Amino acid sequence: MKPEIKKRIEQIQKDVVPTGYKKTKVGIVPNEWDVIQLKYILDQIERKVAKPEVGYWRLGLRSHAKGTFHEFVDDPDSIAMEELFSVAENDLIVNITFAWEHAIALANQEDEGKLVSHRFPTYVFNDKACPFFYKYYVIQPRFKKMLSDISPGGAGRNRVMSKSSFQRLFAIHPPLPEQKKIAEILSTWDKSIELKEKLIGEKKQQKKWLMQNLLTGKKRLPGFTDELQKVKLGDVCNVVIGQSPDSKAYNKDRVGIPLIQGNADCQKGVTKPRLWTTQITKTCYAGDIILTIRAPVGAVAIANQKACIGRGVSAIRPKHCQRYMYQYLLSIEDKWLKVSQGSTFDAISGNEIKKLKIIYPSTEEQTAIAEVLSTADREIDLHEKQLEELKKQKKALMQLLLTGMVRVNTQEVSS
After folding, report:
1. Using a CB cutoff of 8 Å and minimum separation of 24, what contacts does 68-77 make?
2. Pick from 301, 227, 236: which is nearest to 262 by CA?
3. At 278, is the secondary structure helix, strand, or coil?
4. How far apart are the first and last CA of the chain?
5. Percent of the chain with pLDDT over 90
6. Which helix (DSSP H) or strand (DSSP E) does residue 402 occupy?
7. Is the dihedral of CA 278, 283, 286, 291 positive or negative?
8. Is-contact 398 186, C-beta < 8 A?
9. Count of CB atoms situated within 10 Å of the CB of 172
10. PANTHER family annotated for this entry (predicted)?
11. 8-state DSSP, 215
């Protein structure tokens, strides 16, 4: 990054107006940018339709600016309203009852023709604005606050956004060519993110196929032909059922040892305790497999340190290949759900764990299978880290481009 750009960013972040910039209602922006009310670039358009007599697709908005979703209405008679409204591609849609929670999105091609109620006003941009530029602008935290400010009242559905106030909101308005260029750059990042997400989905499906075949014996790795055994889990693993300490012994000051109580203490396949305890009941050790035994049942993680385990989990310590057993337990999460449904409290017992019949190859084959599946995990993990980096880059770009800190028409982005 050029020194002058870096200096400009630092100035704006300190609320100092750099040369060529001005202070406005929406912050410091380039002199060439206007600040206008939305009514000058947006018109509310109502495409009224009678409520269908047969099932239809309706559109909803996710909170926190997470886009649109669709629901099929089987029984139109269950909908009180007799009049609905049709959505078109590139409409800007707001949910007036959850605008305060940032329920806003630009409609895409898949949203075309879906129906909404009067609580979802649709707005169309005129030829002075690029819809895709404002698609990114309205999902910024600053805009969420603006929506919240025009949604008076109590909580939830009692906070209704004023549609007239919405069109009076102020927004930045760069020259149209610059709007289009900024939208093009951010769209490129979106496409990269979309492709990476698709690749991760494919890699996860590939791993699922490997698990379904290698861990059941349907497919064997080259060089392994021995007959597979079926054994009870308790015969090949030590199983420790957790016992909760007295809650008076809990603390957040890291006094005593970590406490693993359930799924909330596990993240991305490893333990991540929230509390510590000075009363030690049952213990797990680094490398043990943690299996949740109370709802949600069957979630699996690896203990990364010695810890006390509460009644919501068990510690499973394989006598041979730990990595194989971890992958095997991952593959049967759904099976535990079926077992737990017979329990009043949606839980599984120590005996049910120990009596579980599992496929148990030779130690050598276990090691080979575990290596194949662990390699797949590492590949997925790498792609997920790359995805997070792409999202961070996009977030940084949005902050720079949508505020004018970096100008695209001077080729500063590529610098």
Report:
1. 68/93, 68/105, 68/107, 68/108, 68/111, 70/110, 70/111, 70/114, 76/51, 76/52
2. 301
3. coil
4. 6
5. 84
6. none
7. negative
8. yes
9. 21
10. TYPE I RESTRICTION ENZYME MJAVIII SPECIFICITY SUBUNIT (PTHR30408:SF12), TYPE-1 RESTRICTION ENZYME ECOKI SPECIFICITY PROTEIN (PTHR30408)
11. T
Q: What is the per-residue DSSP string for 67-132?
A: -EEEEEES-GGG---SEEEE--TT-EEE-TTSGGGT-EEE--GGGTT-EE-TTS-EEEE-TTS-HH
- pLDDT of 256-283, one tens digit each? 999 999 999 998 899 999 999 999 999 9
Asked if residue 116 has pLDDT above 60, the reply is: yes
Strands 275-277 and 357-360: unpaired
DSSP structure class, residue 62: -
Peptide bond into 296 cis (omega under 30): yes
Rounded percentage of the chain residues whose pLDDT exceeds 70: 95
Tokens of 150: 């025009």
Two structure tokens written together for 350: 């120590």
Where would I find the H helices in 274-361?
322-331, 333-340, 350-355
Tokens 């698990």 map to which residue?
211
Backbone angles phi, psi at 359, to 5 degrees: -75, 130
Give the whole-angstrom CA distance, residue 106 versus residue 129: 13
- Please say whether the beta carbons of 259 and 245 come within 8 A: yes
Q: Position 208: which residue type?
A: K
